[in-house]
Amino acid sequence: MALRACLRTKPGLTGLLSQLSSCSSHGAAHMSPALVAQRRSSSTSQKIKVDFDQSTGVAVMRMQSPPVNSLSLEFLTDVCIALEKLEMDKSCRGLIVTSSQPKVFSAGLNILDMYGKSPEHCVEFWKAVQEMWLKFYGSNMITIAAVNGSSPAGGCLLSMTCDYRIMADNPRYSIGLNETQLGIVAPFWFKDTMINTVGHRTTEMALQLGLLYSPAEALKIGLVDQLVPEDQVLTTATETMTKWLAIPDHARQLTKSMMRKPTIDKLTSNREADVNNFVKFITKDSIQKSLGMYLEMLKRRKA
Ligand SMILES: CCCCCC/C=C/CC(=O)SCCNC(=O)CCNC(=O)[C@H](O)C(C)(C)COP(=O)(O)OP(=O)(O)OC[C@H]1O[C@@H](n2cnc3c(N)ncnc32)[C@H](O)[C@@H]1OP(=O)(O)O
Is 11 contained in some domain? Predict the structure, then answer.
């Protein structure tokens, strides 16, 4: 069965060899350096770079969408395509998500994709946001967020979809669901994801006040799992991944699914209503006005 799974994905001798050895637990130890080199693959879109090391079964996804890795429709589409590819490759067991941008993990949803756009665009955009969340939250892979910068709103959501969060211990960074500060309401599945992460009471306060937490505060409430110096975020994520990889996949995956399925099912069975709700809400004049003011504030802050 496992062998058949190995044979399914990659054609050719090299693919076959690498698949066979990635199905055994110590494949890389027996291989020539040349073959080991072939076991690394890299794919780059404009917005993300994915490096997959078949010898470890771990991929690293680097978000590289300047200036702040905001989640635009294009960015979300690239992420979803990359995730789908990794998910289909059974030799990929773990994924680390991090940022190539200095100081920012992700600024959350691209406000320009919600401001002054047609209802049709808003529909496409929101479907892509849902899709990214469903893919990450329901992933069979071990997912670790290496949060090497600020991570407000949708950026925080993205990190919360992962199994483990390691954040740079820099007091200038912040993380949280700050939607109410923009005059918008976090959808029910943002709220549910946060409840699943930090509990009901903390979520209630965090969401109503739109709180952004420093790394130390985030660690205290369990929004992140570990703080490390900035230059050690990725190495710590890699070390942590090794520990998680020691757990048999099937047991870990079933457990993850047991924990997350009710939340996933809730969105899956309400996707269309959630899209309609978003479009109705986001195209309101009052919401557009507050988004416009928020954008101006961001631009002024820079000047
Ligand atoms: C039922 C209805 C439900 C509706 C639910 C909608 C849900 C929304 C969830 C969201 O994610 S909304 C987005 C919320 N995001 C934020 O509040 C983050 C705003 N950004 C920041 O706080 C800061 O930019 C930062 C991320 C902390 C980085 O700070 P830094 O000082 O390094 O950079 P800036 O000078 O502020 O920004 C540089 C540049 O980037 C633009 N920008 C920042 N964030 C966004 C964004 N989210 N979308 C689009 N553009 C963004 C900013 O305007 C600057 O642009 P410029 O042209 O270079 O001046």
Answer: no
Tokens of 58: 């771990």
Closest to 52 in 3D by CA, of 83, 6, 77, 8: 83
Q: What is the pTM of this model?
A: 0.89
- Does residue 296 belong to any structural domain of this protein? yes
- Tokens for 55, please give them: 């010898």
Residue 29 belongs to some domain of the structure: no
**Residue 262 maps to which CATH number?**
3.90.226.10
Question: Domain count of the chain?
Answer: 1
The interface predicted TM-score of the complex, written ipTM, equals 0.98
Q: Could you report the per-residue pLDDT of 194-238, keeping only the tens digit for each?
A: 999 999 999 999 999 999 999 999 999 999 999 999 999 999 999
CA of 33 to the centre of ligand 1 (A): 44
Domain presence at residue 4: no
**Res. 20: pLDDT tops 60:** no
Q: What separation, in Å, do the N-terminal and C-terminal C-alpha atoms of the chain show?
A: 60
Structural domain that includes position 168: 37-302
State which H helix or E strand residue 99 sits in.
strand 94-99
Residues having CB within 6 Å of any atom of ligand 1: 67-68, 70, 103-104, 107-112, 150, 152-154, 178-179, 182, 184-185, 187, 277-278, 281-282, 298-299, 301-302
